[in-house]
Amino acid sequence: MKKVIIASTSTVFGGTYLDYLLPVLKEHFKGISNLVFIPFARPGGITHDEYTEKVKPFFKQLNMEVKGIHQFENPIEAIQKAEAIFTGGGNTFVLVTMLYKYNLLDVIQKVVENGTPYLGTSAGSNICGLTMNTTNDMPIVYPPSFKTLGLVSFNLNPHYLDPIEGLQHMGETRETRIKEFHHYNSQPVLGLREGSWLEVFGNKITLKGDLPARLFQQGKAPIEIETGTDLSNLK
């Protein structure tokens, strides 16, 4: 049975790393003592070791030890044996490229479908959708495929931003970009605002957090989805 938290961000304004999710993750990772962290989304400025060290203090509060996937001799075996998995944020193109490089996408999907608890933030949430095509990131590398984990039957847009009234910026809005996606693709896209997340338990998908999400469907006007809404049938 799937146990997945798909969070828009790791840090909300004025908070510290993952602190807004602390009560949720205490329950999500209850009884778990070790976690495999996937730091592949960071392309530069911070090493995989440094990124792994960054996340350790939060999980220490949960009495959990963290080890980066890059620190294992056999990454596939590490995922197969993992008690829990966390994929952090960064650049989704880099993350997906690395997951394909180490043949990890299929094995992550399999173990999560079979019940290994998973947490994703930002790029780590992007990969929970059918494809990564609705990421906000620049394509600084070229992955073999845009197909991702498909833990939910739609696409995601973490860090979703609404247009700001009175702003003189003339570039495309996030809504415009997602409508462009729907010119060529049919799957729904859920825009997750900061501080919001999806809780996936088995086949049930529920929107959580303080803010509504923005739902985009091909050929339809976008709508607001209130927190607490069951999205299990969205496809």
Write structural notes for this entry.
This protein is 26% helix and 20% strand. It contains 7 helices and 11 strands. The protein is globular. The model has no long low-confidence stretch (mean pLDDT 96).
Beta content: 15-25%
Distance between the termini: 20 Å
Computed over alpha carbons, the radius of gyration is 17 Å
State the total count of DSSP E strands. 11
**Segments where pLDDT lies below 50 for 5+ residues?**
none
Instruction: Give the proportion of residues in helices.
Output: 25-40%
The number of helical segments is 7
Shape: globular
Structural class: alpha/beta
Largest sheet: 7 strands, mixed
Mean pLDDT metric? 96
Element order: H for helix, E for strand: EHEHEHEHHEHEHEEEEE
Helix and strand arrangement:
Layout: E1 3-7, H1 22-28, E2 34-38, H2 48-60, E3 65-68, H3 75-81, E4 85-87, H4 92-101, H5 105-113, E5 118-121, H6 123-126, E6 155-158, H7 174-184, E7 189-192, E8 196-201, E9 204-209, E10 213-216, E11 223-225
Parallel strand pairs: 1-5, 2-3, 2-4, 4-5, 6-7
Antiparallel strand pairs: 1-8, 7-10, 8-9, 10-11
